[in-house]
Amino acid sequence: MLLAFLVAVALAIVSMKDLFSVIMLSGIYGLLSASFFVAMDAVDVAFTEAAVGAGISTLLMLVAITMTGRSEDPDRHKPFLALAVVVVTGGLLIYGTFDMPAFGSAQAPIHQQVVPRYIQHSMEEIGVPNIVTSVLASYRGFDTFGEVVVIFTAGMGVLALLSVARRPEDIAEIDSLNDSMHEQHLILRIVSKMLLPFILLFALYVQFHGDYGPGGGFQAGVIFAAAIILYAMLFGMSTARRVINQSFIQLLAAAGVLLYGSVGIVSLLEGKNFLDYGVLSDDPVAGQHLGILLIELGVGITVASVMVIIFFNFAGRRENAHSGEENEMQNNNRGNNKT
Amino acid sequence: MAAPLCLLLTRPRMVWLFALVVSGTAFLTSILLLQQVMVSGTIVYELGGWKAPWGIEYRIDQLSAFLLLIISAVSTVVLLAAHTSIQQEIPASRHRLFYVLYLLSLAGMLGIVATGDAFNVFVFLEISSLSAYALIALGKDRRALWAAYQYLIMGTIGATFILIGIGLMYQMTGTLNMHDLSVRLPAVEHTRTVFTAFAFIIVGVCLKLALFPLHLWLPNAYAYAPSIVTAFFAATATKVAIYLLIRFTFSIFGLSFSFTALPLQILFLVLGLLGVFVASTAAIYQTNVKHLFAYSSIAQVGYMIIGFSMTTATGLMATLLHLFNHALMKSALFLALGAVMYRIGSVQLSQFQGLGRQMPLTMAAIVIGGLSLIGVPLTVGFVSKWYLVLAVIENGWWPVAVLILLASLLAVVYVWRIVEVAYFKPPLAANESVTEAPLSFLVPIWILVVANLYFGIDTRLSIEVAQAAAQSLFGVSP
Amino acid sequence: MLMDHYNYWIVVVLMMTGFYIVIAHGNLIKKIVGLSIFQTSVFIFYISMAKVEGGTAPILEEGIRQYSNPLPHVLILTAIVVGIATTALGLALAVRIKEAYGSIEEEEIQRQDNLDC
To answer: Could you read off the pLDDT of B242-292 as tens digits, one per residue?
Structure first.
């Protein structure tokens, strides 16, 4: 049933021309797939997908279209070629499904290899009831380390592409603009001001409760970042920027990665392998617990700060796009003449 | 053993010197690794202290040690020139980010090569690609942005295909560890699911590999990226993709399956040859020298694929040799182009007039690199072409050998065009005052050029390693 | 037999819809939307195969014997992060392209490039 909805949404996106509705629909798509994940017992994934697919990425896309315009050119190039490629690829995949183990069958190979150990022994080896957390943070801790590095890379990449040196007079100008704008949303501001501490608290809860229920560093980071972004939207970018220093966030982003890495190195120095948390305490299980806590903290810090970096840079770019449009144009002309 | 490599991943942002030290450390580590692997065979390192199918392991055999060495060596030498080169090509406020992204990309590539876990490959692939997109977009020209965007779309499609393939494999076997996969796959290899998985992985890797006809993203990405980035990626990125191709076909799926499931041999042979000819011909018509060498890179990938398609130890050895040699040639060439860019601010062929006299050392490097591309004796290019032709003849494919030699003639044409302009035309009035490139360029360029000549004359080291790697791959797979 | 694979077939349709958007549409933002749909569908595929009939969420509790497979969940958590990273970078590029070319239509950009050459 949910899947049918998903198909409908996806097809609607294909035919829709207005980018704003396309993005809204893709947010819905994210939310629907999150509910599907719940139905499939993947609560952790659902949590993340709801925060990312329906939350952060929709937000980023919306900010992006305010800068790029929201309508799509109706002309499509080579639709038949594209369709042919798609049909061939899809056909191959369908062909591949025929020999797959039946859906939901407990006899499928993936449930026979490797995983039983996680389910049967993770409690005594790691001492954390949420198996997803123990696999994520310990058995396959290196993957998660890679994941943190990926998000760090993205943050740095966006920074490299969008960061702008801002001139002081712009800030003053934007400030006055913001002030006049936010006079009007007094109630909204008060309500959200009251909500903010709760959101932050909830983020912390998700962060440290990941061992027992769904949640963990990544989800917490996203929620934390969402709180800051909400604040920035309501109180103006410059206020937010004054509260949260840019270079401080960059430092935090790196610190998260470093925290993760140094946990690994500590275990290395203790004569064990990289990311072996057993050495962090006399009792290996307690060590695992501590290790997971620390690395989840590292993940949370990096994710939250990178999300904030990405958002601030998008938004900062947008403000500059207005004041600096002519400037950019000149730069481009110069660039063109050179080639 | 692999620990210093992990150390690499944990860097905050830092400046050139630190980047250089990190890259140099990686280089030294990989030399040690290679020595050890050559002596004692495959090294396994369990990350997190969990045994392989449950945890993730680094598995370093001759092949991956060889690749690690190439990547870290090129990266170190190229970084030597980075400090000077990016002064001109990247705004000062982004320098710090440039180094961060550069190291991330290096870490990603080393990770791909070192890891023994299929999903971990995907993660590292994304680290190196994401930083690659951002690095390319740092180029001065606005077309760099467009090139980076196209690369992002193609690269992500490729990575998603690989992800689908890994998912299907996992579904059939229940494991993600490469070694474990190679043990379990034969039992289910007749299934259509595994066949699909294989097809998806091959297509995904070929997108990354820029194998003809999936090469469209490459020329622009190389041409408009900052010179240092081009030198680094031209020498390493496609090599990593070749590594993945070899790893998946030989080590995971196993030789017999890989080449019977699909008509891969003929497919790759034809695509490789087509790639060589189409790209070489395209190179002749370019007016931007970076474009020219980018097309030549596609052609070189074609040669590697031809060697690969033979599925004999000699063929594979020729591929690996060419991998090594091509990394040397292309990094020297693109670095020399970086020097030209630094001095005259352009790499249009028309601007090269008279440079032979004004920048004699830089142009000499380009000429030697070009000779190597053609495959003239005493350069590395000759060695790998020699073995490639030997392998082809060993297989009894005479026409292919003739075609390879013919294709080399095309290389003569495009290299000659540069030589002609640079040495036999008077300097442009606007470029009267151009002088030789600064030492910070010349030293790394000539390190690479000398390496080009050295490994062209004394071939023992590179051949021994390539041979060992090729044989071990054939030893592993039945 | 039909019901066994019904889920996977729908997922394939979803993937291909996303894939089609990526290659057939010229608008840069829409391409990125397509890419994220393509990736999300792959996630759905992974999660589908982790489901065990009668299993529950993989959080250990007394009295429950059958859990769904946690490993694909872990992989997809990582993959989602990779997905959002790609999306963010792609959007950043699109914004810069808009500034540089004044358009986010593929053909328009290609046309301007050809003029440059």
So the answer is: 888 888 888 787 777 766 666 777 888 888 888 888 888 888 888 888 888
| Cβ atoms B125, B163 nearer than 8 A | no
pLDDT at B478: 33
Q: Does domain C2-53+64-116 have CATH number 3.30.420.40?
A: no
Asked if A36 has any chain C CB less than 8 Å from its own CB, the reply is: yes
**Token pair for residue A2?**
């949910």
Query: In angstroms, what separates the C-alpha of B134 from chain C's closest C-alpha?
Result: 8
- Average pLDDT estimate for B146-152: 87
Q: Do C29 and A61 touch (CB under 8 A)?
A: yes
Which of A30, A48, A161 lies closest to C96 in CB terms? A161
B197 touches chain A (CB under 8 A): yes
Q: Are B258 and B338 spatial neighbours (Cβ–Cβ below 8 Å)? A: no
* Segment B215-227, tens digit of pLDDT: 777 888 888 888 8
Q: Which residues pair with A130 in a beta bridge?
A: C59
Calpha distance B434→B357 (Å, rounded): 10
Q: Which backbone phi and psi does B287 adopt, to 5 degrees?
A: -105, -10
Neighbours of C62 (CB within 10 A): 4
B377 touches chain A (CB under 8 A): no
User: Which residues have CB under 8 Å from B270's CB, separation 6+?
Assistant: none
* Binary contact (A123, C87; C-beta < 8 A): no
| Contact present, A96 and B193 (Cβ < 8 Å) | yes
Q: Does C82 touch chain B (CB under 8 A)?
A: yes
Task: Say which of A108, A130, A162 has its CB closest to residue C92.
Answer: A162
Q: How far is C33 from chain A (nearest CA, A)?
A: 7
Q: Which residues pair with B46 in a beta bridge?
A: B57
Percent of chain B with pLDDT over 90: 0
Please give the domain boundaries of chain A with CATH numbers for all domains: 1-71 (1.20.120.1200), 128-325 (no CATH)
Helix (H) or strand (E) holding B132: helix B118-137
Does the pLDDT value for residue C106 go beyond 50?
yes
List the single residue in B137, B142, B157 with the smallest CB-CB distance to C101.
B142
Q: Determine, for residues B143 and C79 on separate chains, whether the beta-carbon distance falls below 8 Å.
A: no
The residue written with tokens 């299929």 in the block is B118
How many interchain CB pairs under 8 A, A with B?
180
- CB contact under 8 Å between A68 and C94, yes or no, is yes
Q: What integer best gives the mean pLDDT of chain B?
A: 78
Closest chain C C-alpha to A301 CA, distance in angstroms? 14
CA distances from A87 to A244, B96, C111 (A): 49, 45, 29
Q: Give the list of residues 6+ apart from residue B37 with CB closer than 8 angstroms, or none.
A: B43, B60, B61, B62, B65
Quote ipTM for the complex: 0.88
Contact between A196 and A229 under an 8 Å Cβ cutoff? The reply is: no
* CB–CB contact A41 C89 (8 Å): no
Instruction: Work out the minimum CA distance from C58 to partner chain A, whole angstroms.
Output: 6
Contact B55 A139 (CB under 8 A): yes
Q: Tell me the three state secondary structure of residue C68.
A: coil
Q: Which helix (H) or strand (E) holds B47?
A: strand B43-47
Chains that touch B (3 or more CB pairs under 8 A): A, C
> Which amino acid, one-letter code, is at B142?
R
CA distance B20 to A314: 32
DSSP, collapsed to helix, strand or coil, labels residue B341 as helix
Instruction: List all residues 6 or more positions away from A81 whose beta carbon is below 8 Å from its beta carbon.
Output: none
- The residues of chain A scoring below 50 in pLDDT are 166-177, 180-181, 324-339
Residues across chain B: 478
Chain C partners within 8 Å of A40 (Cβ): 47-48, 50-51, 68
Q: Would you call A216 helix, strand, or coil by DSSP? A: coil
Determine which helix (DSSP H) or strand (DSSP E) holds B373, and give its type and residue range: helix B360-374
